[in-house]
Specification:
There is one protein chain. Helix 4 crosses helix 5, helix 5 packs antiparallel against helix 6 and helix 6 packs antiparallel against helix 7. This protein is globular. It is mainly alpha-helical and 162 residues long. The protein is built from eight helices and no strands. Helix content is 67%, strand content 0%. The protein has two domains: 66 residues, Orthogonal Bundle (N-utilizing Substance Protein B Homolog, Chain A); 84 residues, Orthogonal Bundle (N-utilizing Substance Protein B Homolog, Chain A). Belongs to the NusB family. Involved in transcription antitermination. Required for transcription of ribosomal RNA (rRNA) genes. Binds specifically to the boxA antiterminator sequence of the ribosomal RNA (rrn) operons. Keywords: RNA-binding, Transcription, Transcription antitermination, Transcription regulation.
Length: 162
């Protein structure tokens, strides 16, 4: 089963679990350079994936490496250090967040940022989540400007006469 439930839309929890496993798999790919298909097979065999959005896990795991150069070009100008100065975990989180921000418009920008920050709190250095938040917020300004303007626009109320 590719999703945590029979619903057409995966649950937020199933997506969150997919991101967590995808981050760990991307870290493994980054460190060991192992084959993505092999990493994915190992994760599916070694973990309880029954409540994971497997399609999303697959999309992130294969999408981030495929888009790595383009993602790095998007995030590098927003950083105050070089990519090779980042820890492998935090670089993987930034790439995952950038992938979602740039390639998954179905995921609201606030969700992308919040989920990336949560991953950084769990897997990253002590204050790494602050850096992740700052970089992805800048990326959102560039990639999701229309969405951000829509979210900030005051709610219009019609004053129609009855």
């Amino acid at each position: 089963m590719s999703r945590a439930s029979g619903n057409h839309k995966p649950s937020p929890a199933a997506r969150r679990k997919a991101r967590g496993f995808a981050l760990q798999a991307l870290y493994q790919w980054h460190i060991a350079g192992a084959n993505l298909t092999q990493i994915e097979s190992e994760f599916r065999a070694d973990n309880d994936m029954s409540k994971v959005d497997l399609e999303y896990f697959h999309d992130i795991l294969h999408g981030v490496p495929r888009e790595r150069s383009a993602l790095d070009e998007k995030i590098a100008p927003l950083m105050d250090r070089r990519l090779d100065e980042m820890t492998p975990v935090e670089l993987s989180i930034l790439r995952l967040g950038a992938f979602e921000m740039c390639r998954r418009p179905d995921v609201p920008y606030k969700v992308v940022i919040n989920e990336s920050v949560e991953l950084a709190k769990i897997f990253g250095a002590t204050d790494g989540h602050k850096y992740i938040n700052g970089v992805l917020d800048k990326l959102a300004q560039r990639e999701r400007a229309v969405e951000i303007r829509g979210a900030r626009a005051p709610q219009r109320q019609d004053n129609k006469e009855q």
